[in-house]
Specification:
The protein has 325 residues and is of the alpha+beta class. The chain contains 13 helices and 8 strands.
């Protein structure tokens, strides 16, 4: 059972900005429900139309051995926190398989980053722990970043969360809108509850950004470069609502409560539509990468297109008056 001391020490208490967002979102969600009671009743009578099939795991979970090394320090950003059990046997086993304590900290962090980014597929579901994420192979941005942070902490690399409410690009929303009744309105409400979560890890004396939320295929479907460890998604494909960015050691208590209610009870069909749209986006992006000539070629071309054009300078020959002595 959590004690008041542990809640304070590990930053489990939601910051004021999150509480304000939840209050504002609750009013917005209530308004959406009241204005669409007829539609909701009709959808329930018809039954759920969107049937989401979770993709199969593309990796094996390694077996834990008592001889495996892991970081056991009770220090901030290195210890287990809510939904992020970096001491779980499955996490320790995976960290060792990925090269913990054998590779340099940066090399390991890059390997763990690519695993969380590529192997865990985005799915809108209620929050749960990193072991469940690993066993399932899917999760929200917060699930994915929790797994990455847990792997880094297990390897002795400090990791923390960065949360913010955001405005998404139209490319990210369109697949969901195509499949989900009332999705645009649900999204406006969900934006207050399902905050975007990314991470930061401490390397070479400074905190560097790590956003594992987007698979390469989804980035390709939106015409974006395939981001790497150290590249910030802010300003590239995500745009925070001003004043909502907060950094924490842990996922705060109660973060997923209202969002879980929306996912499980209020709009499960709409959420299933989002998840179907995500898989279609991944398939479409995979084809784009293949047709371009591979991920490396696609990424190079996309980054080149996004570079600002350099001004062209033309020098005209100028005839000058020459005085002869």
């Amino acid at each position: 059972m959590l004690t008041p001391w542990e809640i304070k020490r590990k930053e489990y208490m939601p910051p004021l900005i999150m509480l304000k967002l939840n209050i504002k979102g609750s009013f917005f969600l209530a308004k959406v429900i009241l204005l669409n009671l007829g539609t909701l009743k009709k959808m329930k009578k018809q039954g759920q139309k969107n049937i989401y099939m979770r993709p199969k795991l593309t990796y094996n979970i390694p077996k834990y051995k008592s001889s495996m090394k892991f970081c056991n320090l009770d220090e901030k950003y290195l210890r287990p926190t809510l939904y992020c059990d970096c001491r779980a046997p499955e996490i320790i086993a995976l960290a060792n398989e990925l090269g913990a304590f054998k590779k340099s900290d940066r090399e390991f962090a890059e390997t763990a980053f690519e695993f969380a980014k590529r192997k865990i597929i985005l799915e809108i579901i209620p929050l749960d722990g990193v072991v469940e994420v690993l066993q399932r192979g899917t999760g929200t941005c917060i699930h994915k970043i929790s797994l990455f942070i847990a792997l880094c902490r297990a390897a002795g690399i400090r990791g923390r969360y960065k949360f913010y409410a955001l405005k998404m690009l139209d490319q990210w929303m369109q697949p969901a809108i195509d499949h989900a009744p009332l999705m645009k309105q649900w999204y406006d409400a969900m934006g207050y509850f399902l905050l975007h979560g990314e991470g930061e890890i401490y390397l070479d004396g400074k905190w560097i950004p790590a956003d594992v939320g987007a698979e390469p295929q989804r980035q390709a479907a939106a015409g974006l470069p395939v981001t790497k460890l150290g590249e910030d998604s802010i300003g590239l494909w995500l745009f925070p609502i001003p004043g909502t960015i907060t950094r924490r050691e842990s996922v705060p208590l109660g973060l997923g409560f209202t969002g879980n209610l929306l996912i499980k009870r209020v709009a499960p069909d709409s959420v299933a539509g989002i998840n179907i749209g995500i898989l279609e986006q991944i398939e479409r992006g995979g084809k784009i990468i293949e047709e371009t000539g591979g991920e490396k070629t696609y990424d190079t071309m996309t980054r080149k297109k996004r570079e600002p054009e350099k001004p062209k300078i033309e020098l005209d020959e100028k005839k000058e008056i020459i005085f002869e002595g």
